[in-house]
Write a structure and sequence with these properties.
Length: about 400
């Protein structure tokens, strides 16, 4: 579960990480009672990145300017998400900006401290610039100082950054987190250090141990309870857009990467679901098979979805059951298509099909048998299934199928 920036800043302030004076804004008129001195910055509180480029971060010098900017931001969707609150924060002039993070490395099963003297880092070259320290034993200030020294910091700045890393690690342990990130950590002309933005990722399996986080999760789930469809989506790690290509993946990274590739290829993503974990407020246990079955049903009943793009890497539990679910879904569509044909007396020109096409990308040796089996499935002409191993090829196929379906209907 990802927290919004204003929630992260509240945690930072409580544990002693320096943050700017700020105030949550629920409505533009709240700015008439602002307790922060101008100039200020208004930030859209959404989970999507690149807020500044999308227009979700704006500066204001006066109350009138701030209210006008807030009205625009409240009505600005970023990757399909509208903010329910904004964060008003004091303006800060940083002369230096750093990146700091504490992350759980699943490969070594240990926390890792990360630091870089650049905040806006190019992740393709991060290996050369990013410093890291593995917390191999019980944590001590030694690990934080070691990271600061590896970053090339000295004197008072080294001590200050070390203390912040210690606080980040304390928060990481106390809240059972997968990630604590400060990006950027600003340093002004006087040497004052401030966490200007932060990210927190909560380990979903540990949420039940923290009543305050459980309440956050409930509120997040209830935001979309106004309609039955959104209520179903609120149980998932999901992005709801309005395109024709639904995306299913087994990890946040793979889902977002697939979404970006679809957009770059000229396609329009629709509902995107991450099936790796059930939503933390889900009271019933679920398997990956259950989530895949439900996700396919959700996309199938949405008449705007013309293609379902499945992107699974080789870390899916019970891969043979994944094959079974996809095969059952295809067989169900086959029977539905046959029923529609009979009802229209076999006249295909009269038949208006809403059956989604399937593009399945299965990567990894454990899916070898699954790929061979799925390619042998017999499907109706209006419910094709394409099985590939290469993601770029899968995206191209999905975009082409969506365009072909649109041309055929109009």
């Amino acid at each position: 579960m990802e927290l919004l920036e204003y929630q992260v800043k509240e945690w930072f302030r409580t544990i002693g990480i320096p943050v700017l004076p700020s105030q949550k804004i629920d409505h533009p008129t709240d700015l008439k009672r602002l307790k922060i001195r101008y100039p200020i910055v208004l930030k859209s509180q959404v989970h999507a990145g690149e807020r500044a480029k999308a227009g979700g971060v704006r500066f204001a010098e006066t109350t009138i300017d701030a209210i006008a900017a807030a009205q625009n931001i409240f009505n600005l969707p970023i990757l399909g998400e509208l903010p329910e609150v904004l964060l008003a924060e004091a303006k800060y002039n940083a002369e230096q900006e750093f990146f700091l993070a504490v992350v759980l490395d699943t490969a070594v099963c240990r926390p890792i401290l990360l630091g870089c003297k650049e905040a806006d880092i190019d992740w393709e070259s991060a290996g050369k610039k990013m410093q890291h320290v593995v917390v191999e034993q019980e944590f001590s200030p030694f690990y934080a100082r070691r990271l600061a020294l590896k970053m090339g910091l000295q004197g008072a700045l080294m001590q200050t950054v070390s203390k912040i890393v210690e606080k980040m690690y304390q928060l990481f342990i106390e809240k059972d987190l997968d990630l604590v990130e400060i990006n950027p950590l600003g340093v002004d002309a006087s040497g004052q250090v401030m966490a200007l933005n932060g990210s927190v990722s909560v380990n979903e399996r540990a949420i039940a141990r923290h009543p305050d986080i459980v309440e956050m999760a409930r509120k997040t789930a209830n935001r979309h309870s106004s309609a039955e469809f959104n209520k179903r989506l609120s149980e998932w790690d999901a992005v709801e857009l309005h395109g024709k290509i639904g995306i299913l993946g087994n990890g946040t990274g793979s889902v977002l990467a697939t979404l970006d590739l679809v957009v770059n290829a000229g396609g329009k993503p629709g509902i995107c679901l991450n099936l790796r974990h059930a939503f933390p407020t889900d009271t019933l246990p679920s398997t990956f098979r259950d989530r895949l079955d439900k996700a396919l049903d959700i996309l199938a009943v949405d008449k705007s979805i013309q293609v379902i793009l499945i992107n699974f890497l080789g870390s899916v539990p019970q891969s043979e059951e994944v094959t079974e679910v996809i095969a059952n879904f295809v067989q169900h569509n086959k029977n539905e298509a046959k029923t529609q044909t009979l009802r229209s007396n076999g006249n295909k020109s009269r038949r208006e099909t809403n059956l989604p096409r399937l593009v399945v990308r299965l990567a990894g040796s454990e899916f070898n048998a699954a790929r061979k089996y799925l390619t042998t499935l017999k499907v109706p002409s209006d419910a094709s299934i394409v099985v590939v191993e290469n993601l770029d090829e899968a995206v191209t196929q999905a975009v082409n199928l969506a365009k072909a379906t649109a041309h055929r209907r109009f």
